[in-house]
Amino acid sequence: MSEPVSNDRNAPLVLGIETSCDETGVGIVRGHTLLADAVASSVDEHARFGGVVPEVASRAHLEAMVPTIERACETAGIRLFDVDAIAVTSGPGLAGALMVGVAAAKALAVGLGKPIYGVNHLAAHVAVDQLEHGPLPEPCLAMLVSGGHSSLLRVEDVTAGVDPMGSTIDDAAGEAFDKVARLLGLPFPGGPHIDRAAREGDSVYVDFPRGLTSRRDLERHRFDFSFSGLKTAVARWVEARERSGEPVPVADVAASFQEAVCDVLTRKAIDAAASEGIEDILIGGGVAANSRLRALAEERASARGIRVRVPRPGLCTDNGAMVAALGAEMVARGRTPSPLDLPADSSLPVTEVLV
Ligand code: KG4
Ligand code: ZN
User: Which of the listed residues 43, 144, 146 should we mutate to test ligand 1's pocket, taking the one with most ligand atoms within 8 A of CB?
Assistant: First the structure.
């Protein structure tokens, strides 16, 4: 892990806990410096179900929590008593899973006598980039794409609130990757497998639909996404192939599907930034690890004079460092900590960054 940059030496030491889905994440940061990012994933336990099973995730968090906290402290070379504040994902996410993290964070806050910050998972996906690329440009346009969310947010000060500009009206981008992977016989979670398969494929092999991009749709849903029609189109195409007895060209279908998703995501993100006169786009969430999305966003944004920031893949998927990063920013900006009875709120609105 990195050495604290000089002006971070006296910055608050914050431990962040993330348990909104299937990753038990414990991160430790000092200011903008990442000291530890321990993650225990239960993804293998969900694979045979083709999606995350909430009860399985909750139990796994319970088992992984203490060892993951210990591992993070060891990596950071700190004792729990050194921590200045605890941050935890309060929501949105799976209710039972969130509860495990929130309960652990409360126990630490009480035991150590330190303040607790219950934060929004989506805002944490934005804040994490500070650990890699320094202070966030203000304002910036954040595109969050993962298994549970696909949103375009205008961010002025991530500790004060974020402004939703658009989101998916049906499936999340990562959900579409996971469902299409399943159709193609690829393992769960499907994103990385489609990404890999697509490298050998032809992205113009099938012209799959681009959701909510017709002139009429743009009137009502300029910055919204829809991926369920695309998923159905892939299913129909694959079924037709199978019925005719011909083999399904997995790499070509993966590449064509991926192109359709990345085309719409990048087009709308750049349009949203340009419409607000914003010159910086930040991409976060698991799907931000997608190689085509990164390349296309870079190519199209630079043609418009817009910069793109994407954290490295390990910080894009769910982790504790992102929660610690947002917590550290809350402390630095003097935000009031959360009450000790803060809730785990599975449907916490994106506008509420600190509970
Ligand atoms: O942010 P994340 O770890 O958890 C959620 O909050 O959902 O995102 C997981 C999602 C999964 O749907 C996974 O398939 C997708 O991110 N993903 C990818 C890639 N890596 C992970 N999607 C496309 N390409 C990738 N390389
Ligand atoms: Zn997430």
Answer: 146
